[in-house]
Design brief:
mainly beta; 161 residues
Length: 161
Amino acid sequence: MSNQSDSLDSIVIGDGVMVKGTFTVPSKAIINGVIEGDLTADELLIGPTGKITGRIKAKVIDVRGELHNDIISEKSLIVRSSGKLAGKVHYSEIEIEKGGEIEGVLNQGLDSPPVRMSVQAPVSAPTFVAPTAVVPPLTPAAAPSPAPASEPAKPEGADKA
């Protein structure tokens, strides 16, 4: 937090702190502890030890810890490599780092129908294959005819008889 006015409309829940209730934060919420309840903020940063169970709504959500239940990100949602989301997730833009986990239903846009998504390996671009000439089917070759039988060799002097 850069100045005192930033701290007046922000909240920090430290590591080891557990709170219950409904929270509305006009600016930034930094969560390293545990919240059981609902949280609305402009910007939500969940640290690696942070966990929220409840309805979460923010313009920007950056997750290194855990979020459970209904999650609404009006602008961007970033799930870091240590982040875990579970529940119904509504987002405008999403980024998931390798190792980040999401379990549940994803909805892109606030009013869109649910989309079940799974992460897949990238698909390579299609390759162009030139058309080939049409080749007529092959006809079987005729069997070779037997070679003419050769005459047995005549003994010497057999011509003279």
